[in-house]
Known about the structure:
With about 625 residues, the protein is of the alpha/beta class.
Amino acid sequence: MENRNDLWLESVYSDGTPAFVSSPCPKLFETVTIRLRFYRDAPVNCVFLRTIPNGVEQLIPMTRGKEEKGLVYYEAPLQMTEKRMQYQFYLVCENVIYFYTQKEITTYVPDHTYDFVLLADYVQPEWVKDAVFYQIFPERFCNGDPSNDVRTGEYSQDGHPAIHMEHWEDTPLPYKKGYCMDFFGGDLQGIRQKIPYLKELGVTALYLNPIFVAPSVHKYDCLDYFHVDPHLGGDQALAELSQALHENGMKLILDISINHTGIAHKWFNRDGAFFDKSIGAYNNPDSPEREYYFFAPDNSYHKWLGVDTLPTLNYTSEALRDVIYRGEDSVLKKWLKPPYSIDGWRFDVADTFGRKDELQLAHTLWHEIRESIRAVNPQAYILAEDWGDCAQYLQGNEWDAPMNYYGCGRVIRQFLGEPDLFMARNAVLRSVPYRMTAKDVKNRVLEHLAKLPYVMWENQFNLFDSHDASRLHNNPIISQESYRGAVIFQFLLTGAASVYYGDEAEIDGTLGTNEGCRYPMPWSRDIPSCDAYRLIHTMTHLKADHKALRQGGMKFLYAEGSVVAIARFWEDEVFVGVISTERQDVKIRLPLGAVGATTPKEHADIFGTPLDYRPVDGYSIELTVKAGQSYLMECR
Length: 636
């Protein structure tokens, strides 16, 4: 495929958008028109749509259709006779047949791993692909009501007293000093007061870290799933926040861990720290909550990752399933209903949920949870924490999306020079200074996405910073140009983008600890004057204004050496991002013709950076990419 006679292969394209699938979310037995395109002068004799209805291979001849912008379209009908229909394309030339899947083009028959997939009767949370999320760690965002602040010594957790930090600008305490008990006073009232700020930034949805009653600042050690922590404003504050957000056209999802509770949760209540010991499973073998956990005869219990303070919930208990998600008054359903009316859930440690050695309930539980959630709100978003390959959960009947570290955050951060976010936890792996190549980036992103039905691409939650990762801009090896490249990359990937609170304010922080990425929001700073604010503000508003960046196709146009180029396109809109980590200037060939364009619209990119290019070979331009430079250009 290196031969210049095969350049036309760069133009072969199809996806699951309305431009290539007449009904992206079809009904069972509906007939859908499937389209494919490539350069109109490509040496293709005919094209087949290859499907396997009821396990039998079927080759459907595709009809040559319209030609526009140097591209020819082929199309064929496909009836949705099954809930899941897979297909590939066979492009027949004089001396070779090319096989095209979501991941790649081969000259051998590929397996089904990367097939295009349509799902019948799948209900997509349609708002997500248009969304710009803003993740908030509530205790550190804004103190809207100082009267509900935690007082120093008000209570203790595991022998560590609560500490009220005297000044909002103080640095969070290291774990061995604060034990996640250092409170600044952020609350839901503060978030509500900042809605105008968030709207101006371009935010359309909020993701809040846990807000239910819990002793720590992070609140993953829940005491009571049925009430919002009074130090965050209580239940009423959530109702008021949700109403205000919806009145402003914004969505709200909440974070929860239903894999485990804290030892102080009223269902477990090991030490009687917040409830009388007559309540809960640990001290009362006959309590109804006893079956909610895994207890041995000696009263020892199963713990998440062996952490003594986090007992694992036991979903062999039908009663537990009822109280968590099945019952009409269950935890998950309560907060989806008025007056709270949240728009989805983010599930903590979803990768380990329902899994305990020989007891593997995950797929059964996630399917049931999805059914329960969607019975209340068919448009609710089901977001799950998983840092790795999780395609098994992303086939349309369990999760809508993972926290996309695997196909976004881990990728771009390693490409920019950091150790892989997950492998950095191991000293041996962390010591290897490998920087991803452009081909690594392309292959990793496509290996993640191409195993999924396209509607699941559009659900992706693309992020590179969060409450569990040191902030990228706090790393001294990351230049302003590199950071711009990360943001461009994030916003060009199909799906939603997520901004972690304070990134736009160039918030302070340290590397290597959770405390280092949970600093209080620097409201005393002139935030709109920050370079990061202008960058993110530009990207959020571009996404809002251009369908190409919300619902358009996505294609890698270049991935060689240390330069990646990605295009997003819809009808006459074409945007191309170029991210370089090269140490010297390089010239690259950008095949704009493959996405229906010929040249950039202007002689500078969106951010005013000059563009040095010349047209070549009728399909492309030669662009000079400055060392370490990133570009975002609109093309025509």
